[in-house]
Amino acid sequence: SLYGLAASEFDVGDAATYPLQFQHFFLQWAYATVAVTIAGSAISERAKIQTQLILAFATTIWIYPIIAHWCWGQGWLSPFANQKSGFLFYGDESNNFIDAAGSGVVLTVGGVLALVGAVAVGPRKGRFDGKDFKKNNIPMSVLGAMLLWVGWYGFNLAATRGVVGTAGELAGKIAATTTLSAAFSALTM
Questions:
Q1: Per-residue pLDDT reduced to its tens digit, 89-125
Q2: Helix 21-43 and helix 64-72: axis angle, to 10°?
Q3: pTM given for the model
Q4: Which of 11, 35, 85, 93 maximizes the CB count within 10 A of its CB?
Q5: Same domain for 105 and 170?
Q6: Which residues of 22-52 are buried (b: 16+ CB within 10 A; e: fewer)?
Q7: Are 157 and 179 spatial neighbours (Cβ–Cβ below 8 Å)?
């Protein structure tokens, strides 16, 4: 495939053969922006805006679509791949890599790029001088956490591709898991 785009998550194709193409494109765009946000947060305040724009452009145009194609399209990790043999082929049917809501694709791409970026730009100024950081606005931090919590419902539930029938049952389990995960993570603070 051309740079991993043909038959990938960003290939919008023909409306007649794939009627939900624009909804799928929007979902993948949202996933790509999360990966860019994770990576950009690691180098914020330490890199120039041009560097962050290059990172965002390279991630959304080149890096993320290739990884998404490998895992969710017809790539070598996809459980839907047509390949039966090859250097990177693992099992009889597929490589059995299943990533329902993006933890293996979105968060790994963002995390690896964040690590590379953080190592490249070095530590923040004042990181090792022993002074405490100035406290931020606690109500705004709580509001941000609540908005992030609500946003995760859309992120996680979109993976079911619907809320009717068995997809609805799965969506209910995902919503409950998301709620419990967020609620109990507050206990770790």
A1: 555 555 667 777 777 889 999 999 999 999 999 887 7
A2: 130
A3: 0.73
A4: 35
A5: no
A6: eebbebbeebbbbbbebbbebbeeebeeeeb
A7: no
